[in-house]
Specification:
- With 383 residues, the chain is α/β, with parallel strands linked by helices.
- Strand 9 and strand 10 form a beta hairpin.
- Strands 2-1-3-4-5 form a five-stranded parallel beta sheet, with helices on both faces. Strands 6-15-14-11-12 form a five-stranded antiparallel beta sheet. It has a five-stranded antiparallel beta sheet with strand order 7-8-9-10-13.
- The chain has ten helices and 15 strands.
- It is 39% helix and 24% strand.
- It is elongated and about 105 Å long.
- The termini are far apart.
Length: 383
């Protein structure tokens, strides 16, 4: 049964309206003043309010305004009773939030018709409000679950490595979950693997695939005794797009041989590794470590190519994903070469300088707060 609140200082008007509404089986509440009516409305949450415009103290306009300002009462249908029906009065009432008007003296049939129409609208608004609240609740639940998933993915990533080979990682997903991933680990006491991969797309689907790839590589350590290009070919066989939701990924994969100071690497559509040594730094440039290869999963039976280079110590290698230079630019022509220039400046700074400062530098240059894509940056120092 719908609750209807009558607010009127005239007892005769309240009696007439009450009798009409009770005859229609509505539950009727009454208040003699605006202040009393407002208090009762907050207590009972009526579906509809019939309120006189002219009352001593708080008038109907003020009651309507406060009702509509209340989050819990804003959907309440509000009918103003008035003895005037001029355009000026109607505009004033509409501006304060009134939904309908009735002129005195009250006609029974007109009152019932307006009440029924008002209750239909109220019920529709309430259903919409409840649906919105349910959606918001589900959204908060989903966000909490995604946050847990993001924390889990973060926990799988390796911690910084120190020693003769020091690795400092930086991971910045553009959402809670990202498709970029990285890893580094020892195959044996002489060989260190490190890689960065970038799954197409964003969000949960991309994150799940990146974790699957990471776990697969960790489980295939024995097969990683092969050359880097063979590892990529095995990946391409295991992660075809048709079996993985039409997703593909790029990867830069390297193996460092400590005894020979030799780095073997292969790439599948990924940005090059950027190597700084004293010699190339003195020339004001960087060495780009890249090889030919399409992203993993796009085509069957693709052959990849391994390259190698001698590592002079001290040297610094940067591995990264393309989100760091493919940004929505406010600086024209911002590209990979501009990003490499930033890395060059960083490579000349003190060792204590953090990777976060590179990210902040890029954001400042391009006047952005958030990247459009996931970002990974690894700094590998050979000393």
């Amino acid at each position: 049964m719908s609750k209807i609140l009558i607010i009127d200082d005239d007892s005769v008007t309240r009696m007439i309206v009450r009798q009409i509404l009770q005859a229609q089986s509505y539950e009727v509440l009454e208040a003699e003043t605006g202040e009393e009516g407002l208090k009762l409305a907050h207590q009972e949450h009526p579906a509809l309010i019939v309120c006189d415009w002219q009352m001593p103290g708080m008038d109907g306009i003020e009651v309507c305004h406060q009702i509509k300002q209340s989050p819990k009462l804003s959907t309440t249908f509000f009918i103003l009773l008035t003895s005037q029906n001029s355009v000026e009065h109607i505009v004033t009432g509409l501006n304060c939030g009134a939904d309908e008007f009735l002129t005195k003296p009250i006609q029974s049939d007109e009152l019932v018709a307006r009440i029924r129409a008002g209750l239909r609208l109220y019920q529709s608004l309430e259903q919409s409000r409840q649906l919105a609240a349910a959606i918001l609740s589900q959204q908060k639940l989903l966000e909490a679950e995604l946050a847990e998933a993001a924390a889990y993915v973060q926990s799988l990533l390796p911690s910084p490595m120190s020693g003769a080979i020091a690795i400092d990682p930086y991971f910045l997903p553009c959402r809670g979950l990202g498709g970029d991933c990285f890893d580094y680990y020892w195959l044996d006491e002489n060989r260190l693997v490190f890689y960065v991969l970038d799954v197409s797309g964003h969000g949960l689907k991309a994150a799940l695939l990146s974790v699957s790839i990471k776990n697969w590589l960790r489980s295939q350590i024995e097969s990683q005794s092969q050359e880097p290009h063979q590892v990529l070919e095995n990946l391409n066989f295991a992660f075809g797009m048709a079996e993985h939701n039409d997703q593909y990924f790029t990867i830069w994969y390297g193996v460092y041989h400590v005894d020979q100071k030799m780095l073997s690497y292969a790439s599948a559509g990924h940005p090059p590794g950027i190597l700084f040594s004293d010699a190339v730094r003195a020339a004001g440039d960087a060495r780009r470590l890249k090889s030919v290869g399409t992203p993993i999963g796009m085509f069957e039976k693709i052959q990849y190519v391994s390259n190698s280079c001698k590592i002079q110590t001290p040297s610094t290698l940067y591995l990264f994903s393309d989100g760091l230079y493919e940004v929505r630019q406010t600086l024209r022509n911002w590209n990979l070469e501009h990003f490499i220039a930033v890395l060059f400046q960083h490579s000349q700074a003190p060792q204590s300088l953090e990777l976060a400062q590179i990210i902040e530098n890029i954001q400042a240059i391009n006047h952005i707060r958030q990247f459009d894509d996931d970002c990974v940056l690894l700094k590998i120092q050979f000393s």
